[in-house]
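Let us work through a complete example step by step.
Step 1: write down the sequence.
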Amino acid sequence: MKENYVYDGHIHSPYCPHGTKDTFHMYIEKALLLGYKEMTFSEHAPLPLAFTDPTPQKDSAIKMEQLHLYLSELKQIKDIYKDEIKINIGLEIDFIEGYEEDTKILLNEWGQYIDDSILSVHFLKKQDKYMCLDFSAEEFKSMIKEFGSLEKLYDKYFETLLLSIESDLGKYKPNRIGHITLVRKFQRLHERSFDDHPYILKVLHALKSHQLSLDLNGAGLVKEHCKEFYPPLSYAKKAMDMGIPLIYGSDAHRADMLGTGLDDLLHVFNNR
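Step 2: predict the structure and record it as tokens.
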């Protein structure tokens, strides 16, 4: 994290079905204004064909037929801006318990065209049912009931996150794990009566063991029921002390969200 080198490794795009239609150029021009030197567009990769998206609008990820268009357009844009900023063609890959082989097949087919990628957990499995952790406050509340308690929901989230770290997804498996405390998105609505510190430390040790990097994600700062980085900066500092590479990600779903939390982040890490 250097003041003279700003890299945003987690940015969405006009292809995101639950984002805005801000163009690639709008994102890039905003990035240049912020002084970015490098950026990764990491759109949600297509979900496995056999998997049913549990969100009401089925809009968690781009469709398979859009993937080629997304990659082709980014390849052209990457060339247009090559003298101004390094643009990485990327994907955010969903780790879905039980669909590891499908994900590996996707990565084996498309990984050669990708510069950078993130592996994230959004969906949790309960028996044969899947639920989207971060879809809404109402859905999160129903998941607490489904799993039996808030603590059991946290148990399942971090258990799934560890599975994602340890899973064999082939040679194109992402080397960065996304927003590792996403389960805290609605924490101001559901106060913890338990300590989640051991969970997060276990994840950090797994990242270190598997030589993976950490998505230091600013999106939680602007979520009204979260108001902190994913993970909080105290854990980011711990990760840095452990030698885990940190890559800032705005997780922007519209151009004006680029740079979320970046000033605070640079201040903290450049004054350690």
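Step 3: interpret the result. The first helix runs from residue 24 to 33.
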